[in-house]
Structures are given as structure tokens and as C-alpha cells.
Amino acid sequence: MLDAGTIGLIALGLVVGAVSAVTPFLPVEAYVIGLAVAESPPVAVAGAVAAAIGQTVGKVVLFTAARGAATSRWSQKLRDRGAKEAAEIAAAEEAGEAPPGGPVKRALRPVGRWLKRVNAVGIRLLSGRSGPGVVLLSGSVGIPPLLAIAFYAGTSKMSLRAFVVTCLAGRTIRFVVLALVPDLF
Length: 185
Prior knowledge:
By secondary structure, the protein is mostly helical. The chain has helices at residues 4-22, 28-38, 41-70, 73-94, 103-127, 131-141, 146-155, 160-184. It is elongated. The chain starts with a helix and ends with a helix.
């Protein structure tokens, strides 16, 4: 039977996981490793699974926020404004004129084009058949960072179910391995 202290540690894993999912200031891995060092393997694994569930809940919040933002009127206005600016730049370049904007804006355009390409590749990758694999890899290894992947997945065609299953699986693998590492040595 579990005592109140053990239940509290497992519940704390859930909370730490959820909070750390949306902020980089509270690394859940430190909690899981600390739990693994201080507690028995079953308690550490239970805390690790709770942290994985908390992380998944937090990442789902990011996923749904990105999905909602991608379809909002505000983001549509931004896309329309970007398309208008792109048309103005293309027209100026065609006419042999300097593109609109000051020198700083002109200097930053290549960076903006590069970011658009990176975003397009990320969204295309997560929208395809490899999307769940990317989330699983990110959840278990941390590369690419799951914080970014949650946003990209939210703007892609990936289903919420596929995201939840692969995120939870990846996070569970990662945290259970961390919870068992002290016992391996």
C-alpha cells in the first residue's frame, strides 16, 4: 500500500511535468533524477510516468493553442499583410527599384525568408506520415526540442490523438530510463 508521502511525490511529478512542459525554467528531468536517487525504483518509475503524463498534458495545451492561433482572424491578417508586402517587394524588384522599407528591414529579409522555409519544412514533415515518428523521437530524445515540436504539430495536419499517443510514449520512455539509470550503476 502506498503511503501519503509516496502519493505526494507521484502527484508532484504530475505537477512538475505539466508546469515544465510550458516553461523552460523548471526541468522535469532534474525532478525525475532526484526522485530516482532518493526513492526506490518502483516509486521513481511511478513518478516518472506521472511526470510524462503531466508533460503530455502541458504539450497538448501548447498544441491546441497553436492550432487555435493558426486558424484565428489575427493570424489571417498577419498572413494577408505578409502576402501584400511580398507582392510589393516582388513588384519593386521587377521594376528595378529598391524594395520598400529601410536598410534594416531590407537586411533582415533573407532571415525572414529562411525562417519561412524552416517553418514550411517543419509543418510539412509533421503533417506527413513521419509526423508521429518525429514527435516520438523528440519526446524520447529531446531532439528536436519538444517545446517547438508541440507548436509545429499544432499548426500541421497531425491529429490530436496521434500527438498525444506519441508524445506520451516518448516522454514515458525518456523519464523511465532516467528513473532507472541510478539502479544501473
